[in-house]
Specification:
With 292 residues, the protein is of the alpha/beta class. The chain contains 14 helices and 10 strands. Helix 12 links the parallel strand 8 (233-237) and strand 9. The longest helix is centred in the first third of the chain and has 21 residues, at 87-107. The structure holds ligand C2E and magnesium ion (3 copies). Residues 24-278 form the EAL domain.
């Protein structure tokens, strides 16, 4: 008891213990039960082709339907989940749920597009991500190209040798890989070649810099050129204005993502952007309708 009154006791009464950290503690306790109570949701945001603006892919973004606070953005609870390690089971749920949703859309006769999920560094360390991904795809009878993984630079640099090995296995499986928020973290350009990801996503801050009358699109333009020289596809995130859209398209950016084209939305609402196949081209769906 005397020991407890030492540092912890002091911290409790000190001004450092602000309402935010107390809130975090409460949030962490509630977050533990959120998964089991089924309070997590995925919202889907479209990625459109820069030429033609057809929806060709999507990103799954985590939400927490909190019983009292309402729908919470990842900014509110992902940091807490990462600190507590809860991000590992939560991240597993994200991958399984994305695959389950793709299967459900396919069964409804929707034309599927690849869906990207965001990974946390801890999922590389504390989880057999390769087996998890393989299992989630197999359980739902999905081809691997329908799943994309978004990784951050910091994540890749942490244990580069091990990461290269894991990424090679994922790539061999046919899963596609993207570097998220590119340019915002610390990365070595030499490693870009080693990691061999298919896609770079230009960080939102550089897209935000593209303004009419300004001359601040240089970084976005440079990232597009770099990616193309490495044989990679480029996605711009956070596209909000027509000016940004036109600038990025002129620079040869491949895909655009942002509020201009669609906000993240619940699965039921996103489904309408997928359109439905009159005649399912998928062999499995065709086989089923014949059998029925
Ligand atoms: P991110 O992966 O870079 O995702 C893009 C974020 O930008 C999303 O915020 C999206 O709603 C927002 N966004 C998209 N278009 C626009 C736009 O035109 N303007 C503006 N201002 N924002 C736009 P969100 O959903 O709040 O997610 C924030 C971050 O939380 C994500 O950034 C990602 O790092 C993390 N996150 C989301 N879902 C997961 C998850 O399942 N697992 C993990 N580990 N992290 C996640
Ligand atoms: Mg992302
Ligand atoms: Mg991003
Ligand atoms: Mg971001």
């Amino acid at each position: 008891r005397a020991k407890d009154d030492g540092r912890n006791g002091f911290q409790f009464y000190s001004a450092d213990m602000n309402t935010a950290s107390l809130g975090e503690l409460l949030l962490e306790n509630q977050l533990r039960g959120a998964l089991e109570r089924g309070e997590l949701r995925l919202h889907y945001q479209p990625k459109v082709c820069a030429r033609g603006h057809a929806v060709v892919a999507a990103e799954a973004l985590l939400r927490w339907q909190h019983p009292e606070l309402g729908l919470l953005s990842p900014g509110r609870f992902v940091p807490v989940a990462e600190e507590s390690g809860l991000i590992v089971p939560m991240g597993e749920w994200v991958i399984r749920e994305t695959c389950r949703q793709l299967r459900a859309w396919q069964d409804e006769g929707r034309v599927l597009v690849p869906v990207a999920v965001n990974l946390s560094a801890q999922q590389f360390v504390h989880q057999d991500i390769v087996s998890l991904v393989r299992e989630a795809l197999d359980d739902n009878d999905l081809p691997a190209h329908l799943l994309e993984l978004e990784l951050t630079e910091t994540m890749l640099m942490r244990d580069a040798d091990r990461t290269v090995h894991i990424l090679a296995q994922l790539r061999a499986m046919g899963v596609s890989l993207a570097i998220d928020d590119f340019g915002s973290g610390y990365s070595s350009l030499a490693y870009l070649k080693r990691f061999q990801v298919q896609t770079l996503k230009i960080d939102r801050s550089f897209v935000h810099d593209i303004r009419e009358g300004g001359e601040d699109g240089e970084i976005a333009a440079a990232v597009i050129a770099l990616a193309h020289n490495l044989g990679q596809q480029v996605v711009a995130e956070g596209v909000e204005t027509e000016y940004q859209r036109d600038f990025l398209t002129r620079q040869g950016c491949d895909l655009l993502q942002g509020f201009l084209f669609g906000r993240p939305q619940a699965a039921e609402d996103f489904a309408s952007s997928l359109g439905s196949a009159q005649m399912p081209r998928d062999a499995r769906a065709a086989g089923e309708s014949v059998a029925a």
